[in-house]
Amino acid sequence: MMxxxxxxxxxxxxxxxxxxxxxxxxxxxxxxxxxxxxxxxCKTCVNSYRHVLPTVYAHLHDIGFLETYTTxxxxxxxxxxxxxxxxxxxxxxxxxVNTTTSNEMFDVIDxxxxxxxxxxxxxxxxxxxxxxxxxDMFEELNTKLYPxxxxxxxxxxxxxxxxxxxxxxxxxxxxxxxxELLRVAFPKSKIPASHYEAKNKLRKIELGYQSxxxxxxxxxxxxxxxxxxxxxxxYGMMYHPVDGKSWQDFDQRYLEFAKEPRHVRLGLAxxxxxxxxxxxxxxxxxxxxxxxxxxxxxxxxxxxSFMLTLLIPGPKSPSKDIDFFLxxxxxxxxxxxxxxxxxxxxxxxTIFNMRAMLLWTINDFPARGSxxxxxxxxxxxxxxxxxxxxxxxxxxxxxxxxxxxxLHMNHKWRQSLLFNGQPERRRHPxxxxxxxxxxxxxxxxxxxxxxxxxxRGATRKRNDETRKRVELTKRSIFFELEYWSSLELKHNIDxxxxxxxxxxxxxxxALMNEKNQRQKRSKRRLETYGHSARSMxxxxxxxxxxxxx
Length: 549
Prior knowledge:
By secondary structure, this protein is of the alpha+beta class. It contains 17 helices and eleven strands. The protein folds into four domains: 6-75, no CATH class; 104-203, no CATH class; 243-373 and 476-493, no CATH class; 390-428 and 496-549, no CATH class. Helix 1 packs antiparallel against helix 2 (53-62).
Protein backbone atom coordinates (compact mmCIF):
# COMPACT_ATOMS: atom_id res chain seq x y z
CA MET A 1 0.00 0.00 0.00
CA MET A 2 1.84 3.07 -1.27
CA UNK A 3 0.26 6.17 0.24
CA UNK A 4 1.54 9.75 0.27
CA UNK A 5 2.26 10.50 3.94
CA UNK A 6 3.18 14.15 3.54
CA UNK A 7 -0.33 15.29 4.44
CA UNK A 8 0.09 14.36 8.12
CA UNK A 9 2.46 17.34 8.50
CA UNK A 10 0.14 19.81 6.77
CA UNK A 11 -1.98 22.43 8.54
CA UNK A 12 -5.01 20.66 10.00
CA UNK A 13 -7.28 23.34 8.54
CA UNK A 14 -5.92 22.89 4.99
CA UNK A 15 -7.96 21.16 2.30
CA UNK A 16 -5.17 18.63 1.68
CA UNK A 17 -5.19 17.50 5.30
CA UNK A 18 -8.99 17.25 5.44
CA UNK A 19 -9.25 15.26 2.18
CA UNK A 20 -6.44 12.90 3.17
CA UNK A 21 -7.98 12.45 6.61
CA UNK A 22 -11.20 11.25 5.01
CA UNK A 23 -9.23 8.74 2.94
CA UNK A 24 -7.50 7.48 6.08
CA UNK A 25 -10.82 7.11 7.89
CA UNK A 26 -12.16 5.02 5.01
CA UNK A 27 -9.13 2.75 5.40
CA UNK A 28 -9.46 2.62 9.19
CA UNK A 29 -13.14 1.70 8.88
CA UNK A 30 -12.10 -1.66 7.39
CA UNK A 31 -10.01 -2.54 10.46
CA UNK A 32 -12.35 -1.99 13.40
CA UNK A 33 -12.70 -4.68 16.04
CA UNK A 34 -15.84 -6.45 17.16
CA UNK A 35 -16.83 -3.41 19.24
CA UNK A 36 -16.50 -1.02 16.31
CA UNK A 37 -13.29 0.52 17.64
CA UNK A 38 -9.93 1.11 15.99
CA UNK A 39 -6.53 2.28 17.23
CA UNK A 40 -6.23 6.08 17.28
CA UNK A 41 -2.95 7.44 15.75
CA CYS A 42 -3.32 10.96 17.17
CA LYS A 43 -0.45 12.61 19.04
CA THR A 44 -2.07 11.85 22.39
CA CYS A 45 -3.30 8.28 21.96
CA VAL A 46 -0.25 7.15 19.85
CA ASN A 47 -2.03 3.94 18.81
CA SER A 48 -2.23 2.82 22.45
CA TYR A 49 -6.00 3.37 22.80
CA ARG A 50 -8.96 2.28 20.70
CA HIS A 51 -11.96 4.51 20.01
CA VAL A 52 -15.01 4.53 17.77
CA LEU A 53 -14.50 6.11 14.35
CA PRO A 54 -16.09 9.53 15.15
CA THR A 55 -13.80 9.91 18.16
CA VAL A 56 -10.73 8.98 16.12
CA TYR A 57 -11.72 11.52 13.46
CA ALA A 58 -12.18 14.22 16.11
CA HIS A 59 -8.78 13.46 17.67
CA LEU A 60 -6.97 13.59 14.33
CA HIS A 61 -8.74 16.82 13.42
CA ASP A 62 -8.22 18.60 16.76
CA ILE A 63 -4.92 17.14 18.00
CA GLY A 64 -3.15 16.07 14.83
CA PHE A 65 -1.74 12.92 13.25
CA LEU A 66 1.32 11.31 14.82
CA GLU A 67 4.06 12.27 12.37
CA THR A 68 6.29 9.28 13.14
CA TYR A 69 3.54 6.79 12.33
CA THR A 70 4.50 6.30 8.70
CA THR A 71 3.81 2.58 8.36
CA UNK A 72 0.14 2.02 9.12
CA UNK A 73 0.54 -1.50 10.50
CA UNK A 74 -2.52 -1.03 12.74
CA UNK A 75 -4.65 0.05 9.81
CA UNK A 76 -3.95 -2.56 7.15
CA UNK A 77 -0.44 -1.80 5.88
CA UNK A 78 1.96 -4.73 6.02
CA UNK A 79 5.19 -4.28 7.94
CA UNK A 80 8.28 -4.81 5.82
CA UNK A 81 11.30 -6.35 7.57
CA UNK A 82 10.90 -8.34 10.75
CA UNK A 83 13.97 -6.77 12.31
CA UNK A 84 12.68 -3.20 12.06
CA UNK A 85 11.66 -2.04 15.53
CA UNK A 86 9.36 0.83 14.43
CA UNK A 87 6.29 -1.15 15.38
CA UNK A 88 4.21 1.48 17.03
CA UNK A 89 4.37 5.16 16.30
CA UNK A 90 8.15 5.58 16.66
CA UNK A 91 10.84 6.82 14.25
CA UNK A 92 12.11 4.07 11.98
CA UNK A 93 15.82 3.36 12.12
CA UNK A 94 15.92 1.39 8.81
CA UNK A 95 19.06 -0.37 10.04
CA UNK A 96 19.13 -4.00 8.91
CA VAL A 97 20.11 -6.47 11.57
CA ASN A 98 20.50 -9.50 9.35
CA THR A 99 24.09 -8.60 8.50
CA THR A 100 27.11 -9.21 10.68
CA THR A 101 28.37 -5.65 10.33
CA SER A 102 25.24 -3.83 11.56
CA ASN A 103 25.66 -3.12 15.26
CA GLU A 104 24.27 0.28 16.24
CA MET A 105 25.84 0.03 19.70
CA PHE A 106 29.34 0.51 18.24
CA ASP A 107 28.37 4.10 17.39
CA VAL A 108 27.04 4.66 20.93
CA ILE A 109 30.25 3.34 22.47
CA ASP A 110 32.34 5.53 20.16
CA UNK A 111 30.37 8.64 21.20
CA UNK A 112 30.76 7.91 24.90
CA UNK A 113 34.42 7.01 24.51
CA UNK A 114 35.06 10.25 22.65
CA UNK A 115 33.78 12.17 25.71
CA UNK A 116 35.92 10.07 28.02
CA UNK A 117 39.00 10.73 25.89
CA UNK A 118 38.82 14.39 26.82
CA UNK A 119 40.11 13.35 30.23
CA UNK A 120 43.89 12.96 29.91
CA UNK A 121 43.99 10.50 32.81
CA UNK A 122 42.12 7.92 30.70
CA UNK A 123 44.50 8.05 27.69
CA UNK A 124 47.67 6.01 27.27
CA UNK A 125 50.86 7.05 25.51
CA UNK A 126 49.48 6.44 22.01
CA UNK A 127 46.13 8.15 22.69
CA UNK A 128 44.00 5.06 23.30
CA UNK A 129 41.44 4.81 26.05
CA UNK A 130 42.46 2.78 29.06
CA UNK A 131 39.12 2.57 30.85
CA UNK A 132 38.53 -1.07 31.97
CA UNK A 133 34.73 -0.64 31.94
CA UNK A 134 34.68 0.32 28.27
CA UNK A 135 37.07 -2.50 27.42
CA ASP A 136 34.45 -4.84 28.87
CA MET A 137 31.71 -3.11 26.85
CA PHE A 138 33.64 -3.56 23.59
CA GLU A 139 34.11 -7.20 24.48
CA GLU A 140 30.36 -7.56 24.95
CA LEU A 141 29.73 -5.90 21.60
CA ASN A 142 31.74 -8.67 19.97
CA THR A 143 30.10 -11.38 22.10
CA LYS A 144 27.38 -13.37 20.37
CA LEU A 145 23.95 -13.41 21.94
CA TYR A 146 24.19 -17.20 21.92
CA PRO A 147 26.83 -19.47 20.36
CA UNK A 148 24.99 -20.00 17.05
CA UNK A 149 23.95 -16.32 16.65
CA UNK A 150 25.90 -14.55 13.91
CA UNK A 151 23.95 -11.32 13.37
CA UNK A 152 23.37 -9.77 16.82
CA UNK A 153 25.51 -9.11 19.84
CA UNK A 154 24.51 -9.33 23.47
CA UNK A 155 24.45 -5.55 23.96
CA UNK A 156 22.65 -4.84 20.69
CA UNK A 157 19.88 -7.30 21.58
CA UNK A 158 19.51 -5.69 24.98
CA UNK A 159 19.13 -2.19 23.48
CA UNK A 160 16.50 -3.37 21.00
CA UNK A 161 14.58 -5.26 23.68
CA UNK A 162 14.45 -2.16 25.90
CA UNK A 163 13.41 -0.13 22.86
CA UNK A 164 10.42 -2.40 22.35
CA UNK A 165 9.56 -2.07 26.04
CA UNK A 166 9.51 1.72 25.81
CA UNK A 167 7.48 2.11 22.61
CA UNK A 168 4.88 -0.41 23.79
CA UNK A 169 4.76 0.93 27.36
CA UNK A 170 5.48 -2.37 29.03
CA UNK A 171 5.56 -2.56 32.78
CA UNK A 172 8.80 -3.63 34.45
CA UNK A 173 7.10 -6.79 35.70
CA UNK A 174 6.11 -7.71 32.14
CA UNK A 175 9.71 -7.21 30.97
CA UNK A 176 10.96 -9.41 33.82
CA UNK A 177 8.55 -12.19 32.86
CA UNK A 178 9.64 -12.02 29.22
CA UNK A 179 13.37 -12.22 29.90
CA GLU A 180 12.76 -15.04 32.38
CA LEU A 181 10.99 -17.01 29.64
CA LEU A 182 13.73 -16.23 27.11
CA ARG A 183 16.44 -17.38 29.50
CA VAL A 184 14.61 -20.68 29.98
CA ALA A 185 14.12 -21.12 26.22
CA PHE A 186 17.72 -20.13 25.39
CA PRO A 187 19.81 -21.21 28.38
CA LYS A 188 23.11 -20.46 26.62
CA SER A 189 22.18 -16.87 25.79
CA LYS A 190 23.47 -13.70 27.50
CA ILE A 191 20.00 -12.32 28.20
CA PRO A 192 19.83 -10.30 31.47
CA ALA A 193 17.84 -11.75 34.35
CA SER A 194 15.67 -8.66 35.00
CA HIS A 195 14.89 -5.10 33.97
CA TYR A 196 17.07 -3.84 36.81
CA GLU A 197 20.07 -5.77 35.52
CA ALA A 198 19.46 -4.53 31.98
CA LYS A 199 19.33 -0.89 33.07
CA ASN A 200 22.54 -1.23 35.07
CA LYS A 201 24.35 -2.62 32.03
CA LEU A 202 23.26 0.27 29.81
CA ARG A 203 23.98 2.81 32.51
CA LYS A 204 27.68 2.08 32.04
CA ILE A 205 27.51 3.69 28.60
CA GLU A 206 25.49 6.63 29.93
CA LEU A 207 22.16 5.45 28.58
CA GLY A 208 20.67 5.50 32.07
CA TYR A 209 19.57 8.44 34.18
CA GLN A 210 20.41 10.05 37.50
CA SER A 211 17.73 11.11 39.97
CA UNK A 212 18.36 14.61 41.36
CA UNK A 213 16.13 15.77 44.19
CA UNK A 214 14.94 19.36 44.43
CA UNK A 215 13.46 21.58 47.12
CA UNK A 216 9.66 21.52 47.01
CA UNK A 217 9.71 25.32 46.53
CA UNK A 218 11.89 24.96 43.38
CA UNK A 219 14.67 27.06 44.86
CA UNK A 220 17.60 24.60 44.99
CA UNK A 221 18.84 21.29 43.58
CA UNK A 222 20.43 18.70 45.86
CA UNK A 223 23.29 18.23 43.43
CA UNK A 224 27.07 18.62 43.38
CA UNK A 225 28.03 20.67 46.44
CA UNK A 226 24.45 20.32 47.79
CA UNK A 227 24.24 16.59 47.11
CA UNK A 228 24.73 15.52 50.72
CA UNK A 229 22.43 18.15 52.26
CA UNK A 230 19.21 17.16 54.02
CA UNK A 231 17.78 20.68 54.34
CA UNK A 232 17.21 23.30 51.67
CA UNK A 233 20.29 25.58 51.49
CA UNK A 234 18.05 28.59 50.72
CA TYR A 235 15.40 28.31 53.42
CA GLY A 236 16.84 25.63 55.72
CA MET A 237 13.55 23.79 55.90
CA MET A 238 13.02 21.15 58.59
CA TYR A 239 12.71 17.70 57.04
CA HIS A 240 12.37 15.73 60.30
CA PRO A 241 11.38 16.64 63.88
CA VAL A 242 14.93 15.79 65.01
CA ASP A 243 16.03 19.04 63.32
CA GLY A 244 13.58 21.09 65.38
CA LYS A 245 14.22 23.07 68.53
CA SER A 246 11.71 21.07 70.61
CA TRP A 247 13.52 17.77 69.98
CA GLN A 248 16.95 19.25 70.65
CA ASP A 249 15.80 21.05 73.81
CA PHE A 250 14.36 17.79 75.13
CA ASP A 251 17.67 16.01 74.49
CA GLN A 252 19.52 18.63 76.53
CA ARG A 253 17.11 18.26 79.46
CA TYR A 254 16.98 14.46 79.50
CA LEU A 255 20.45 13.27 78.58
CA GLU A 256 19.94 9.71 79.80
CA PHE A 257 16.94 9.23 77.52
CA ALA A 258 18.64 10.93 74.56
CA LYS A 259 21.84 8.86 74.62
CA GLU A 260 19.89 5.69 73.71
CA PRO A 261 18.79 6.05 70.05
CA ARG A 262 16.40 3.12 70.38
CA HIS A 263 14.16 5.01 72.83
CA VAL A 264 10.97 5.94 71.01
CA ARG A 265 9.57 9.45 70.33
CA LEU A 266 5.82 9.48 69.69
CA GLY A 267 3.40 11.91 68.10
CA LEU A 268 -0.33 11.84 68.89
CA ALA A 269 -3.09 12.78 66.44
CA UNK A 270 -6.79 12.90 67.33
CA UNK A 271 -9.86 14.34 65.69
CA UNK A 272 -13.57 13.66 65.52
CA UNK A 273 -15.70 12.72 62.52
CA UNK A 274 -19.12 11.29 61.75
CA UNK A 275 -18.70 7.79 60.23
CA UNK A 276 -22.28 7.86 58.93
CA UNK A 277 -21.89 11.08 56.95
CA UNK A 278 -25.13 13.06 56.84
CA UNK A 279 -27.33 10.12 57.75
CA UNK A 280 -26.83 10.60 61.49
CA UNK A 281 -25.54 14.04 62.39
CA UNK A 282 -25.54 13.37 66.13
CA UNK A 283 -22.93 10.59 66.13
CA UNK A 284 -19.23 11.19 66.72
CA UNK A 285 -16.13 8.99 66.54
CA UNK A 286 -12.71 10.07 67.77
CA UNK A 287 -9.70 7.93 66.75
CA UNK A 288 -6.50 8.54 68.74
CA UNK A 289 -3.44 7.57 66.69
CA UNK A 290 0.25 7.41 67.60
CA UNK A 291 3.17 7.45 65.17
CA UNK A 292 6.88 6.96 65.81
CA UNK A 293 9.46 9.58 64.82
CA UNK A 294 12.48 7.26 65.09
CA UNK A 295 12.10 6.39 61.41
CA UNK A 296 12.82 8.57 58.33
CA UNK A 297 10.11 11.05 57.31
CA UNK A 298 9.00 8.97 54.32
CA UNK A 299 8.29 6.04 56.68
CA UNK A 300 6.90 7.64 59.85
CA UNK A 301 4.00 9.24 57.93
CA UNK A 302 2.95 6.02 56.21
CA UNK A 303 -0.13 4.13 57.34
CA UNK A 304 2.00 1.14 58.35
CA SER A 305 3.63 3.32 61.04
CA PHE A 306 0.32 4.39 62.62
CA MET A 307 -0.97 2.81 65.82
CA LEU A 308 -4.67 3.13 66.61
CA THR A 309 -4.51 3.31 70.39
CA LEU A 310 -8.05 4.49 71.18
CA LEU A 311 -11.39 4.74 69.39
CA ILE A 312 -13.96 6.90 71.19
CA PRO A 313 -17.48 6.46 69.71
CA GLY A 314 -20.64 8.00 71.04
CA PRO A 315 -23.69 10.12 70.31
CA LYS A 316 -21.78 13.28 71.28
CA SER A 317 -18.25 14.56 70.98
CA PRO A 318 -16.14 14.07 74.16
CA SER A 319 -15.04 17.70 73.78
CA LYS A 320 -13.58 19.07 77.04
CA ASP A 321 -14.05 15.72 78.79
CA ILE A 322 -11.74 13.84 76.43
CA ASP A 323 -9.23 13.48 79.30
CA PHE A 324 -11.57 10.92 80.83
CA PHE A 325 -11.14 8.67 77.78
CA LEU A 326 -7.39 9.27 77.46
CA UNK A 327 -6.71 7.78 80.91
CA UNK A 328 -5.64 4.27 79.68
CA UNK A 329 -3.28 5.77 77.10
CA UNK A 330 -1.69 8.28 79.49
CA UNK A 331 -1.13 5.54 82.10
CA UNK A 332 0.73 3.47 79.51
CA UNK A 333 2.80 6.50 78.46
CA UNK A 334 3.74 7.08 82.11
CA UNK A 335 4.84 3.46 82.42
CA UNK A 336 6.86 3.60 79.18
CA UNK A 337 8.68 6.69 80.45
CA UNK A 338 9.38 5.53 83.99
CA UNK A 339 10.06 1.80 83.54
CA UNK A 340 10.05 0.96 79.85
CA UNK A 341 9.59 -2.50 78.37
CA UNK A 342 12.00 -5.29 77.46
CA UNK A 343 12.56 -5.46 73.71
CA UNK A 344 14.75 -7.56 71.44
CA UNK A 345 17.07 -5.82 68.99
CA UNK A 346 16.94 -8.09 65.96
CA UNK A 347 19.98 -6.48 64.31
CA UNK A 348 22.39 -7.54 67.07
CA UNK A 349 20.22 -10.22 68.75
CA THR A 350 20.25 -8.61 72.21
CA ILE A 351 17.63 -7.61 74.78
CA PHE A 352 17.38 -3.97 75.88
CA ASN A 353 15.01 -1.79 77.89
CA MET A 354 13.04 0.50 75.58
CA ARG A 355 11.45 3.69 76.91
CA ALA A 356 9.12 6.09 75.12
CA MET A 357 7.94 9.68 75.38
CA LEU A 358 5.16 11.75 73.78
CA LEU A 359 6.78 14.54 71.80
CA TRP A 360 3.60 16.48 70.90
CA THR A 361 0.07 16.27 69.54
CA ILE A 362 -1.13 17.13 66.01
CA ASN A 363 -4.69 18.43 65.59
CA ASP A 364 -6.85 21.01 63.97
CA PHE A 365 -7.72 24.04 66.10
CA PRO A 366 -10.97 22.76 67.73
CA ALA A 367 -9.37 19.40 68.63
CA ARG A 368 -6.36 21.24 70.01
CA GLY A 369 -8.65 23.07 72.38
CA SER A 370 -10.07 19.77 73.63
CA UNK A 371 -6.63 18.25 74.27
CA UNK A 372 -4.87 21.31 75.67
CA UNK A 373 -7.92 22.62 77.57
CA UNK A 374 -7.40 26.08 76.11
CA UNK A 375 -10.70 27.43 74.82
CA UNK A 376 -10.38 28.43 71.17
CA UNK A 377 -13.68 30.27 70.79
CA UNK A 378 -13.48 33.21 73.21
CA UNK A 379 -11.66 36.50 73.70
CA UNK A 380 -8.20 35.00 74.30
CA UNK A 381 -8.53 32.13 71.83
CA UNK A 382 -4.91 32.15 70.63
CA UNK A 383 -2.86 29.88 72.93
CA UNK A 384 0.41 31.38 71.66
CA UNK A 385 -0.51 35.04 72.18
CA UNK A 386 -2.17 34.01 75.43
CA UNK A 387 -3.23 37.11 77.41
CA UNK A 388 -1.98 39.39 74.58
CA UNK A 389 -4.59 38.14 72.08
CA UNK A 390 -6.34 40.97 70.19
CA UNK A 391 -10.05 40.27 69.85
CA UNK A 392 -13.28 42.16 69.43
CA UNK A 393 -16.93 41.22 69.74
CA UNK A 394 -18.82 41.93 66.48
CA UNK A 395 -22.60 41.39 66.81
CA UNK A 396 -22.72 37.83 68.21
CA UNK A 397 -19.34 36.57 66.95
CA UNK A 398 -15.72 36.93 68.01
CA UNK A 399 -13.25 38.55 65.63
CA UNK A 400 -9.48 38.37 66.05
CA UNK A 401 -7.63 41.46 64.87
CA UNK A 402 -4.44 43.39 65.44
CA UNK A 403 -2.26 41.28 63.14
CA UNK A 404 -0.11 44.30 62.23
CA UNK A 405 1.46 43.89 65.68
CA UNK A 406 3.57 41.06 64.25
CA LEU A 407 5.28 43.39 61.75
CA HIS A 408 8.53 45.08 62.72
CA MET A 409 8.15 48.52 64.26
CA ASN A 410 9.30 50.43 61.15
CA HIS A 411 7.05 48.65 58.68
CA LYS A 412 5.02 51.04 56.54
CA TRP A 413 1.76 49.16 57.11
CA ARG A 414 1.91 50.02 60.80
CA GLN A 415 1.35 53.67 59.90
CA SER A 416 -1.46 52.95 57.45
CA LEU A 417 -4.95 54.16 58.35
CA LEU A 418 -6.71 51.93 55.81
CA PHE A 419 -7.35 49.04 58.17
CA ASN A 420 -9.14 50.61 61.12
CA GLY A 421 -8.36 54.30 60.89
CA GLN A 422 -5.58 54.09 63.48
CA PRO A 423 -1.81 53.46 63.26
CA GLU A 424 -0.50 50.34 65.00
CA ARG A 425 1.98 51.27 67.77
CA ARG A 426 1.77 48.15 69.94
CA ARG A 427 4.64 45.71 70.09
CA HIS A 428 4.27 42.09 69.09
CA PRO A 429 2.74 39.76 71.72
CA UNK A 430 4.98 38.45 74.47
CA UNK A 431 6.44 34.95 74.44
CA UNK A 432 4.94 33.02 77.35
CA UNK A 433 7.40 30.43 78.64
CA UNK A 434 6.61 27.22 80.50
CA UNK A 435 7.03 28.86 83.90
CA UNK A 436 4.34 31.43 83.15
CA UNK A 437 1.95 28.79 81.84
CA UNK A 438 2.45 26.66 84.95
CA UNK A 439 1.57 29.68 87.11
CA UNK A 440 -1.62 30.12 85.12
CA UNK A 441 -2.47 26.44 85.63
CA UNK A 442 -1.92 26.79 89.36
CA UNK A 443 -4.73 29.37 89.52
CA UNK A 444 -7.33 27.03 88.07
CA UNK A 445 -10.05 25.62 90.26
CA UNK A 446 -10.66 21.89 90.44
CA UNK A 447 -13.45 20.71 88.19
CA UNK A 448 -15.39 17.47 88.42
CA UNK A 449 -15.30 15.76 84.98
CA UNK A 450 -18.37 14.75 83.05
CA UNK A 451 -21.45 16.35 81.50
CA UNK A 452 -23.84 15.74 84.37
CA UNK A 453 -25.93 18.89 85.05
CA UNK A 454 -24.84 18.96 88.69
CA UNK A 455 -21.16 19.17 87.67
CA ARG A 456 -21.31 21.84 85.00
CA GLY A 457 -21.57 24.86 87.28
CA ALA A 458 -22.62 28.39 86.38
CA THR A 459 -21.91 29.91 83.00
CA ARG A 460 -19.33 32.68 82.97
CA LYS A 461 -20.42 36.05 81.66
CA ARG A 462 -18.20 37.66 79.06
CA ASN A 463 -17.16 41.12 80.23
CA ASP A 464 -14.01 43.23 80.48
CA GLU A 465 -12.93 41.37 83.60
CA THR A 466 -13.20 38.05 81.78
CA ARG A 467 -10.89 39.31 79.05
CA LYS A 468 -8.08 39.82 81.55
CA ARG A 469 -8.05 36.15 82.50
CA VAL A 470 -6.59 33.30 80.49
CA GLU A 471 -8.80 30.79 78.73
CA LEU A 472 -7.45 27.63 80.34
CA THR A 473 -10.49 25.72 81.54
CA LYS A 474 -8.75 22.74 83.12
CA ARG A 475 -5.33 21.20 83.62
CA SER A 476 -4.77 18.81 80.71
CA ILE A 477 -4.20 15.15 81.54
CA PHE A 478 -0.92 15.30 79.59
CA PHE A 479 0.62 17.34 82.42
CA GLU A 480 0.68 14.11 84.41
CA LEU A 481 3.60 13.09 82.19
CA GLU A 482 6.80 14.04 83.99
CA TYR A 483 8.38 15.77 81.00
CA TRP A 484 5.28 17.42 79.48
CA SER A 485 5.56 20.76 81.28
CA SER A 486 9.11 21.25 79.99
CA LEU A 487 8.34 20.67 76.29
CA GLU A 488 8.86 23.72 74.09
CA LEU A 489 6.14 22.67 71.65
CA LYS A 490 3.25 20.68 73.08
CA HIS A 491 0.58 20.97 70.40
CA ASN A 492 0.93 21.25 66.61
CA ILE A 493 -1.71 22.66 64.30
CA ASP A 494 -2.70 20.54 61.29
CA UNK A 495 -1.97 23.31 58.80
CA UNK A 496 -3.65 21.78 55.73
CA UNK A 497 -6.91 21.23 57.61
CA UNK A 498 -6.97 24.77 59.00
CA UNK A 499 -5.89 26.31 55.69
CA UNK A 500 -8.78 24.66 53.86
CA UNK A 501 -11.40 25.83 56.36
CA UNK A 502 -10.04 29.37 56.65
CA UNK A 503 -9.50 29.88 52.93
CA UNK A 504 -12.96 28.66 51.99
CA UNK A 505 -14.68 31.00 54.44
CA UNK A 506 -12.41 33.91 53.63
CA UNK A 507 -13.03 33.65 49.87
CA UNK A 508 -16.79 33.35 50.31
CA UNK A 509 -16.95 36.40 52.58
CA ALA A 510 -14.50 38.47 50.52
CA LEU A 511 -16.50 37.84 47.34
CA MET A 512 -19.73 38.66 49.19
CA ASN A 513 -21.38 35.50 47.96
CA GLU A 514 -24.82 35.77 49.57
CA LYS A 515 -26.19 32.36 48.64
CA ASN A 516 -27.04 31.47 52.23
CA GLN A 517 -28.06 33.20 55.43
CA ARG A 518 -24.71 32.56 57.16
CA GLN A 519 -22.82 34.52 54.52
CA LYS A 520 -25.38 37.31 54.68
CA ARG A 521 -24.80 37.57 58.41
CA SER A 522 -21.04 37.57 57.82
CA LYS A 523 -21.43 40.49 55.45
CA ARG A 524 -23.37 42.46 58.02
CA ARG A 525 -20.71 41.71 60.63
CA LEU A 526 -18.03 43.06 58.31
CA GLU A 527 -20.01 46.26 57.90
CA THR A 528 -20.42 46.55 61.67
CA TYR A 529 -16.78 45.66 62.22
CA GLY A 530 -15.47 48.91 60.68
CA HIS A 531 -16.72 51.10 63.54
CA SER A 532 -15.99 48.52 66.26
CA ALA A 533 -12.42 47.90 65.11
CA ARG A 534 -11.58 51.59 65.03
CA SER A 535 -12.90 52.18 68.53
CA MET A 536 -11.17 49.07 69.88
CA UNK A 537 -7.84 49.96 68.26
CA UNK A 538 -7.99 53.46 69.74
CA UNK A 539 -8.78 52.08 73.21
CA UNK A 540 -6.03 49.42 73.12
CA UNK A 541 -3.51 51.91 71.78
CA UNK A 542 -4.23 54.22 74.70
CA UNK A 543 -3.84 51.31 77.13
CA UNK A 544 -0.53 50.36 75.56
CA UNK A 545 0.82 53.91 75.92
CA UNK A 546 -0.33 54.06 79.55
CA UNK A 547 1.42 50.79 80.35
CA UNK A 548 4.76 52.13 79.01
CA UNK A 549 4.57 55.37 80.99
